[in-house]
Amino acid sequence: MKHPQIEEYEINTCTMFVEPVIYGGKIYSRAVELEDEYLSPFKPLDIIKKGCVYFGVDYESRKRGTRQLIGYSRKIPIVIEPTNHIYFFPTASPLIPECIWISLEHVECYRRVSSQKTMVIFRNKQSHIFPVPVSKIEGQMLRTSLLKTKLLQRIESNGRKLFYMAHGPQSLNAFEKSREYSADFQSNDPNKC
Questions:
Q1: Rounded Cα gap, residues 99 and 91, in angstroms
Q2: Is 139 exposed, middle or buried (0-12, 13-18, 19+ CB in 10 A)?
């Protein structure tokens, strides 16, 4: 293998996917980023779990949160870090060795190659063929998008509540009643709005 081997790999905003590879009779992970690839002696699920912990939440908590938000309980996507939009979805049950984890944010499009293969084109124009039917990729993309939407709605709703609590109700003043409005409106200065 030509990829640099590293002990500690952390999921980050550049990670496009993490797939299992057999190396020396053992399952390793190939982590593919926008411009680099790495070989890690850990399984893909272990890297996903470490990514969750790195950002302060354990994998099981993320799973429970996802179930509660979107109502799915099998092959569920995981938000590793919502602020930076790090959402990954599994191509199969995370417990089986063939499971690949793909980042939602980096997928530009996908298309069927054969009944059991799908080509995913990433935003950086790289493509990769995964041994997964297109229907599975499509379903997982939809689930992950639903998770992202629901989570962002909650984050935005909390932000509005916090703003309201900090600032209280705002009164609206009509600008038309002030003298400044008439003077500004008649001004020929192109730099004024």
A1: 6
A2: middle
Cβ atoms of 27 and 34 within 8 Å: the answer is no
Tokens representing residue 171 in the block: 């009164």
* Residues facing 43 on adjacent strands: none
pLDDT along the chain (193 residues), means of 10: 76 97 93 96 96 95 94 94 95 95 98 97 97 97 96 79 58 51 46 36
Query: Tokens 């509660």 belong to which residue?
Result: 68
Instruction: Sketch the domain layout of the chain as residue ranges.
Output: 15-166
Q: What is the distance in angstroms between the CA of the first residue and the CA of the last residue of the chain?
A: 61
Tell the burial category of 97 from Cβ atoms under 10 Å away from its Cβ (0-12, 13-18, 19+): exposed
